[in-house]
Input
Amino acid sequence: MAMMNNICSGILIAMLLMSCGNSQVRLRDIEKDPQAYTGRPVTISGTVVETFSIPLTGKGLYKISDDSGGELWVNPQGRVLERGEHATVTGEIKIGFTVLDKSFGIILVEHNKGE
Output
């Protein structure tokens, strides 16, 4: 019986840890302490307020803003969303991201949809 309790406890702890990994994070919190969010999946949500196209590649970035007043650039796996669209994105925070000699500082690199 004790072994069964240990197994159940282990499964419960694993489920709790997995559910915490992708909880939505406020953009202002990422801006204040980006190091705290690196190396793990992060989910953010907000409205697209700016876009940046990379010429001749069909790729680009977009910046989202949320109700915390924070803003963050996103490097999407798919299409670049349009200004005014709502986005919920999961990925990894990168610090010191540069494209075509333009520095984006802190950015979320979206995970593949299957990850």
